[in-house]
Amino acid sequence: MLEQGTISIHTENIFPIIKKSLYSDHQIFLRELVSNAVDAIQKLKMVSRAGDYAGDIGEPEIEIAIDKDKKTLSISDNGIGMTADEVKKYINQVAFSSAEEFIHKYEGKSDQPIIGHFGLGFYSSFMVAQKVEIDTLSYQEGAQAVHWSCDGSPAFTLEESSRTTRGTTIILSLQGEEEEFLESARIKNLVKTYCDFLPVPIKLDGEVINKQKAPWRESPSNLTQEDYLEFYRYLYPFQEEPLLWVHLNTDYPFIINGILYFPKMRPDVDVTKGQIKLFCNQVFVSDNCEEIIPQFLMPMRGVIDSTDIPLNVSRSALQGDRTVKRIGDYIAKKVGDRLKELFRDNREQYISAWKDLGTFVKFGVLNDEKFKKQIEDIIVFRTTAKLTEKVAAETPVVEVQSSDGDAWQDVTPSPSSDSAPSAPYTTLKEYLERNKERNENRVFYSTDEATQSTYIELYKNQGLEVLFMDSFIDTHFINFLEREYQDVKFTRVDSDLDNTLLEQDKDKEIVDPKTNKTRSETIKELFEKSLNKPKLNIRTEALKSEDPQGTPPAIVLLPEILRRLREMNAMMQQGTAEFPEDHILLVNTAHPLIQNLANLNQGSIIQGDGESSTDQLVNLICQHVYDLALMSQKGFDAEGMKSFVERSNEVLTKLTEQASK
Question: What Pfam families does its record include (predicted)?
Answer without folding.
Answer: HATPase_c_3 (PF13589), HSP90 (PF00183)
